[in-house]
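Final report, results section. Input specification for complex C-07:
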Amino acid sequence: MRGSSLTAARSGLMSCHACHQLSRIPRMSIDGVVICPRCEAHVHLRKPNSISRTWALLIAAYILYIPANLLPVMTVISFGKGEADTILSGVKELIHAGMLPIALLVFFASITVPVLKLLTLTFLLLSVQYKSQWRPRERTVLYRITELVGRWSMIDIFMISILIALVKLQAVATIEPGAGAISFAAVVIITMFAAMSFDPRLIWDNIEEKA
Amino acid sequence: MTMPHLVIACHECDLLHRLHSLRYGERAKCSRCGAALYARKRDSFLHTILLAVTSLILFALANSFPFMTFELHGRVQQSLLSTGVWEFFERGMWELGLLVLAASIVFPFLKIIGMLYVLVPLEFHYRPWKAALVFRMVEQCQTWAMMDVYLLGVIVAVVKLADLAILVPGVALYSFVALIIALAAADSALDPHEVWERMEKIR
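Structure output:
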């Protein structure tokens, strides 16, 4: 659709993140809180402390990413013998079993997506902090994808939940979830929060400053 | 403070757009960054309500009938949708138990109930208590209700166990698949802008 070339912020307006309603930016904010007249959500010109919050969550996710991949996510105990599986060895096992499409799916959801998510958010943060003018539209699309695909990394956690519910024949076979699963779930959730706390409008603010 | 509903700002790049009246099935995108702005849907309220009621019935089925049956060396093990959650709790991994409980049961339920709580009274020109708060929660549930991801987890688990044991899907699994479809349909029928506008008129 055709639009103006004016942003809400330049027109002295801010838009509510919950319902899109525009409000005037208060001249003097007394306690700094503006409530949306329509949906009663807190309205912010930009997401509060977006950059530092996203960095904090992102660094936490990077740290947790190490145990998430090194520790076993589950152990299959069959006839008294246990075999520990990490995220990566789970994928390898699927390949050996000849389940290539499923192996690709798990590889994509549990390895590609988290890594790309961490790297993309790092890149977006740095590009905003260094006031990059490079392809704002593509960077916004990148952000949109990052926000959408994050939840699909949970496949492994749900798979474990189904396996431990089904396989509990004490002597014959049981499955025990491992500490890696907690770290991995934490990485997924924390990066989801990191994506939510990043404000893509910051990308465009830099473009306008220059213009 | 309230602005007339003639202008809308893009959520992703803050550009202002004049609101155009769309025809049914049309959607407006931001001219600068391509983000979705708004859409117009035919009979949005009625369709959403009917699909939410369908989802509620399927939700009840998915949570009360056996989800899957596992058979190995003549021993049979039956599980419910929620069995995995309790298994996590029993092993002291309550974090994962809570996570799976929230993503596969609590958030989907809150979303269905929240939709009905807000939409049904509004359809009869009555504004329910805390309508704005509840509807904001419904929109938040979008991210955290992960039944679709859970279903892929089921598929991977089944593939892993396929040559080890015999697996029989139960009524709950079929209901669960239908629930995912019904809830996604309810989602795409829902027009949040219309909900906010109706809420404002009835205030």
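Chain B touches chain A through 74 residues (CB under 8 Å). The beta strands of chain B are 7-9, 16-18, 27-29, 36-39, 68-72, 75-79, 166-169. This concludes the modelling results for the funded period.
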